[in-house]
Design goal:
- 17% of the residues lie in helices and 41% in strands.
- The chain contains six helices and 14 strands.
- It is elongated.
Length: 337
């Protein structure tokens, strides 16, 4: 009786041991985007995080840092990929204004005094903006002010497989939804005319050609976003004219120089919502704060082995909160297990 049961016990033990596994090919789990989803640096892709097969569970953890001309952003989080079908992710983002907080205070006060045709003194420029403009936002940004948000994501692979569908045009297609919760103070949200919580949606199609450009493995991804997130939610959602959901494109490409190194680029359109209600002389302030640009990057990702990937990129995020030419360095580490 013991001998008869042994194969069943052994089989169950093997099945249990393989439940958490890494049976997929190197690189097929991608890296981690700043919103926590498997993909590139700024875009989610249709792939499911980790290296688990359709009979396994995989998981990842990540940390990313973006160093721009006037701002810094840190993002970290984790994800679980269930049977190469469902991905559940979490990301925490912290966006630091650095020394730019003081410049924003001065800009707001400059607009305020300009309403009355007065040239402010240096002392008046650095006074609390609520005293000069009557806004309900924070009295003073100052240095190193941080905007924080949490993002919880769910992605489901609908059909297709990036590796096995080589003799067919069909890409791997996934649909995703993100819940954003911003910790922006209520008075700042009221000043900007935004909400602090919202949902974003996307449809992603990813295709891989093992014998692609110059005979190298080549990847292409196209996304359709449905979102109202200002700077991905760091400046809230919607605007003074309502929730303002937009349908916007995103795209990524990558070429495997060898089985461990990928070189590519990404593009992600951002919605343009009007922030800070006002007319006449006050309108330029709202227009300046509302200005957004598409996010772009050129990246190189290194997969030394399945448990680790490192990504470096040059990112160009355009104009953020009145500050133009926000470009710089993006570094990210993803661990898989």
């Amino acid at each position: 009786m013991v001998l008869a049961a042994s194969p069943l016990v052994a089989s169950a033990a093997i099945g249990q041991a393989c439940l958490w596994g890494m049976g997929r090919l190197l690189g097929t789990g991608a890296v981690t985007a700043v919103d926590g989803a498997a993909g590139g640096g700024i875009n989610p892709w249709a792939v499911i995080s980790g290296y688990g097969t359709n009979q396994q569970i995989g998981a990842t953890a990540f940390y990313s840092h973006v160093l721009l001309n006037n701002y810094n952003m840190d993002a970290y989080g984790a994800s679980v990929g269930l049977f190469d079908r469902i991905e559940i992710s979490y990301a925490r983002q912290s966006f630091s204004l650095g020394n730019t907080g003081t410049a924003l205070d001065q800009a707001i006060n400059g607009f305020a005094y300009g309403l009355h045709g007065v040239s402010p003194s240096a002392e008046e420029l650095n006074a609390p903006a609520s005293q000069t403009l009557g806004l309900s936002g924070p009295a003073f940004f100052g240095n190193n002010y941080q905007l924080n948000q949490d993002i919880v994501g769910l992605k489901v692979r609908l059909f297709g497989n990036i590796v096995y569908d080589q003799n067919w045009w069909e890409p791997q297609v996934s649909v995703g939804v993100d819940y954003h919760h911003s910790e922006m103070p209520k008075n700042l949200a009221a000043t900007l005319g935004v909400t602090r919580n919202a949902m974003s949606y996307y449809l992603s199609a990813t295709k891989v050609w093992l014998d692609g450009i110059f005979g190298l493995t080549t990847l292409a991804d196209v996304n359709i976003q449905v979102t109202n997130a200002n700077q991905q939610g760091l400046l809230g959602f919607g605007g003074v004219n309502g929730m303002g959901y937009k349908v916007l494109p995103a795209a990524s490409v990558g070429v495997f120089l060898n089985r461990h190194v990928v070189l590519g680029g990404e593009y992600r359109a951002m919605p343009q919502n009007q922030l800070i209600a006002g007319s006449g002389p006050l309108a330029p302030l709202g227009d300046a704060v509302s200005k957004t640009s598409a996010w772009k990057d050129v990246y190189v990702a290194w997969f030394p082995y399945k448990q680790l990937s490192l990504t470096a990129a040059y990112v160009d995020l355009g104009t953020i909160a009145t500050e133009k030419n926000q470009s710089g360095l993006y570094l990210s580490l993803t661990t898989s297990f």
